[in-house]
Amino acid sequence: MRKILIAGASGFIGRALIDELLKSEDIEIVGLSRSVRSSERERLIWKKCDLFSLKDISTAMEGCTEAYYLVHSMLPSASLSQGTFYDFDLIMADNFIRAAKKFKLNHIVYLGGMIPLGEELSWHLRSRLEVETTFRNSHVKTTVLRAGLIIGPQGSSFTIIQKLIERLPVMICPAWTKTLSQPVALQDVIKVLGKVLYLPEVQGNTYDIGGPEVITYQGLILKAATRIRKQRKIYSLNIIPLFISRFWVSLVTGVPKNLVYPLVLSLKHKMLAQPEHLWPYQEDLSTSLDRALEIALSGEVKEVYSGYAPVQKDVRSIQRLVLPEGRNADWVAHEYFRWLPTFFSTLIKVEIVGDRCTFYLLDPALKLLILEQSKEINTSDRQLLYIVGGFLSGKQERGRLEFREVLDRRYVMAAIHEFRPALPWFIYKWSQALIHLMVMRAFGEHLKWHVISAKKVLS
Would you say the C-alpha torsion 442, 443, 448, 453 has a positive or negative sign? Predict the structure, then answer.
């Protein structure tokens, strides 16, 4: 029995993939979800898992032989999320690949986005490429499938288009709506995802999976409007800047701007399959655009998922910092504790005794935060400390601070996860939270100074 892990199993692609894989009697599926789920289906096990937690992923992955990674989160994952979606994506991918190496996964299938050649990529596409790079550099065999717009019910990108058609009889469209794309039917994507498991000759390679028709976004909107039996007029106004059109799309559709903004900024790129990356079995991608639209539009317009809704107020804060050459995450963590008191001009002190690190204000009795090194074995490329006390800390379950190396040691991520503050929420957001951002940005400049100093010494 092959035990397959699916990260992103609760999404619209993940749910369809589960249906496809369970047709094979030799497969058992472990589906990851942020919430507790029960399953009445044989050979499907749901496991609650926070992808920001290496411990959660490791627990869920144990015993699995292969995995699908269908995750791309642009929505907040906490009550307060400080940082960019691409840094969040990078940490989740890094966690996943660390667990995959630990359990010696045979194969990972990653569904990403098409990458135009020779262009300055939007952060949405750069994020997809960074995840690819993270998997590729791990030496765990990874098959990368790149897709543009996937036409399927409940897909976030397609639902946005559907809502625009439903709500606007007349559209004044910016230049990006004339960009060429190669939308692909959900059922074709699922067919390819399933086939990869059984074709050793394609595993470990990169493929673009596009549908049989190349069309502009304007053309797609008109074609979909015909299917919905809505007469829509479209006028082009090329001077509309991207930042205006992304705001307009979010306002009209009601979709959170965190999701809309990165997607719209990526629409300036042609999303076309590259000849050197074509899927070798093109018959798998033969569903016509008309047929794909017919299937996708057969149901009601669905609400797009708006993000994580925590029961208690929690904080996630992630900053990407440059890693000085020859240094590691262990050095960065210790440098942070050495540097912090000098930044606050002796107001805040740091005391390290054994596995405990205490931040205090002037007097040791005034403990701000108490951190305790993880009982798990910390490594030179990842340092993890749990937040266990201090008068700025509320009751913690898994609040933690970490420093980890990413992208071949080019950067180190400084991240706080699942922190629950003691201060009233409004006060925290406009005081402690902002101070933390200021401190981390200043520490990032401090690390850049180390880089510049090292270059001066070498020259």
Answer: positive
Give the DSSP letter of residue 169.
Answer: S
Burial class (CB in 10 A: 0-12, 13-18, 19+), 239: exposed
Q: The whole model's pTM is what?
A: 0.90
Name the CATH superfamily for 2-296.
NAD(P)-binding Rossmann-like Domain (3.40.50.720)
First vs last C-alpha separation in the chain: 59
Nearest to 140 by CA among 93, 193, 100, 92: 100
Paired residues of 67 in beta bridges: 5, 108
| Among 252, 140, 253, 245, CA closest to 203 | 140
Helix (H/G/I), strand (E/B), else coil: 333: helix
Q: What is the mean pLDDT of residues 283-305?
A: 78
| pLDDT (tens digit per residue) in 326-359 | 999 999 999 998 898 888 877 888 888 888 889 9
Instruction: Dig out the tokens for 276 from the structure.
Output: 């050197």
Query: Would you call 396 helix, strand, or coil by DSSP?
Result: coil
Give pLDDT tens digits for 146-158. Answer: 998 898 887 777 7
Ranges in the chain annotated CATH 3.40.50.720: 2-296
pLDDT in tens, 367-383: 999 999 887 778 999 99
Which of these, 451, 445, 453, 323, lies nearest to 383 by C-alpha position?
323
Instruction: Cite the residue boundaries of each domain of the chain with CATH code 3.30.530.20.
Output: 315-458
Q: Fold for 315-458, please state it.
A: Alpha-D-Glucose-1,6-Bisphosphate; Chain A, domain 4 (3.30.530)
Q: Which residues of 50-69 are buried (b: 16+ CB within 10 A; e: fewer)?
A: bbbbbbbbbebbeebebbbb
Give the Cβ contact number of residue 282 at 10 Å.
12
Residue in the block written with tokens 């050459």: 325
Helix spans in 113-256 (H): 123-136, 156-167, 186-196, 217-228, 242-253
Residues ≥6 apart with Cβ < 8 Å to 372: 355, 356, 357, 385, 386, 388
| Residue 361 falls in which region: left (phi positive, over 0), alpha (psi -120 to 50) or beta | beta
Q: Which of 358, 322, 384, 20 is nearest to 188 (CA)?
A: 20
Would you give the distance in Å from CA 349 to the centre of its chain? 35
| Whole-number Cα distances in Å, 198 to 2, 20, 45, 141, 324 | 11, 13, 22, 14, 43
How does pLDDT run across 5-46, given as a tens digit for each residue? 999 998 889 999 999 999 999 999 999 988 877 777 889 999
